[in-house]
Amino acid sequence: MFSALPHASVLPTYGWDSTWEQLALTADAPAGAVPGRVARVDRGRVDVLTGRGRVHAAPRVPCAVGDWVLVDGSAVAAVLPRRTALTRSAASGRSEAQVLAANVDTVLVAAPLAAGVRPGRVERLVALAWESGATPVVVLTKIDQDDGSSLVAALSDLADAAPGVDVVPVSAVSGDGVDEVAAAARGTAVLVGPSGAGKSTLANALLGEEAMATATVRDVDGKGRHTTVHRELLPLPGPGVLVDTPGLRAVGVRDAAEGIDRAFADVVDLAGGCRFADCAHDTEPGCAVAAAGDAGTLPARRLAAYRKLVREDEWAAARTDARLAAERRGRWRQITRDQRARYRARGH
Question: Which family does it belong to (predicted)?
Answer without folding.
Answer: Belongs to the TRAFAC class YlqF/YawG GTPase family. RsgA subfamily.
